[in-house]
Each structure stands twice: as structure tokens, then as C-alpha cells.
Prior knowledge:
Elements: E1 3-5, E2 11-12, E3 15-19, H1 21-29, E4 37-41, E5 46-55, E6 59-69, E7 79-83, H2 89-100, E8 104-109, H3 119-139, E9 147-148, E10 152-153, H4 161-166, E11 170-176, E12 179-186, E13 191-199, H5 204-218, H6 220-236, H7 241-271
Helix pairs in contact: 2-3, 5-6, 5-7, 6-7
Amino acid sequence: MYRFFIKEEQIHDGMIEICGSDVNHIKNVLRMKTGDKVYLSNGSDLEYECSLLEWTDDTILAKIEDVHGMETELPVKITLYQGLPKGDKMEMIVQKAVELGVAEIVPVAMKRCIVKLDAKKAAKKVSRWNTIALSAAKQAKRGIIPEVREMKNFKDILKHNDELSKLGIIYRRQDHPNQQLYVCGDLQNNIQTHFIQVVIFNSKEWHDYINMRDYLNANEEKANEYSDLKIKLADEYPNDRIAYTKGKSKLIEEILKSASMWRKCNDYKSNN
């Protein structure tokens, strides 16, 4: 069943008035007729199962047959902070992110981004991306319309630290000029279960993390060596993050060199 989005003011006396571009889509693209059923979502918490009743040139009146809560949304809210890619790749990213369940998308102008947009161009881009998000939400039968927000700089992400802390993601510090450290766990009892490194997309740090991840997934022996070292250091330095990090540095350096070579070899084999 097709889904469209409406506003609360379009609902009255058990009826919903469909207007705007959806009218043309229902009439001339989908070629729906009186009695056909559609889902109409208020974009937040309710979904209306309706049958199409009356038609005019610019409106369609739909009768509400049933009302129920949203059943298509993820139990967690996911915000995607996306560095600006070249060309029109952002349009595909917005479309697929919405289809996969992202709740909102924040375009981020990273230090090494090739794309540079002034305020006027950025506003036009964001408007275009929101149109794509709406279309993707309908196609994927989402219960909400994910919003593409105004463009941010990388440092603006830190403004969301209070919101992230409510979700158990706590900002620790800037370990490196190009990355920010967040942790999860029971911090009141000094229990840290996860470390999250936020880095700039396509930066050297980003490639290092990706190469190391893929290399360790493909090399069980080295992965076990790295895991054993982390356990050993965690036991030795439970309250000393600096000593813990320093103890890993030599092995990490070795792994990064091996991972870089491994990646180059794999890329060469794939292209030849």
C-alpha cells in the first residue's frame, strides 16, 4: 500500500484532505481510483489507513478507516554526520541513508573536503537533499520524513555533546588534532565498555582505521595478538589511559604498516 505524508491541519471530521504534488502523483502517475487504499502518516507518531473518496482538480478527500502507531521506525534515533563528497554522490547517500532508517542527516564541511559551498549554494543543496529524503521516505514506507539539516563544520559536532551524553556517549577529549574521543559505559564506577573515535571522512586517520579493521578481520593471528595485548594493558593500567595507549603504540604502528601494504596488494590484485 502506498504511503504519503500529511500535516495535522489536513485532518478533520474523520477525513484527510490530500493536497499539493501528491494529488498529481496519485491521479496521473499511480492512476489510483475511488475506493483505493493508502497510508497517510503525520510524520511523527500516527499512521492513518484511508480509502480515497472524493476528487477535485487540486485535492483528494480520503476517509480514515483505521489509526495505529508507527511500526516501521527503528527503536533508536540515528543521526548521520556526512562529510561532503564530490559530484552528486550526496544525493545517493541521502536516499540510501533514509531507506536504511536514519532519522536525520547533517552535512559536514570537513577540512579536506574538495567541495566548497557558500551560504546561498549550501541552502539550495540542503533544500534539494530534503526533497530526495521525502521521496525516499515514501518509497521505503518510512513513518517519518528524515530531515537533512543545515551544513556544519567538523567542530560544530562538539555542540551536540550534551545530547550525546544523554544517550550514554560521553565526550572525553581530543586525542589527536584530527579526531575526537567518546566513551560509553558505567562511568560513575569507572567502567568503560566502548571507545568511539570520531575522525574526518577520507582523512589519513580514517584510512588508518579502515585499513587496520579490515586487516585484523583478515588476519586472525595478528588480531589475537592485538586483543591479548589490550587485555594485558587494561589489567596493568586500569586507571591510566595514557600508559595504556602508550603500551599499544608500537604494535599499532607495526599493524598499520602491514595493513597499508596489505591494502595496496589487495587493490592491485582487484584491478589487474
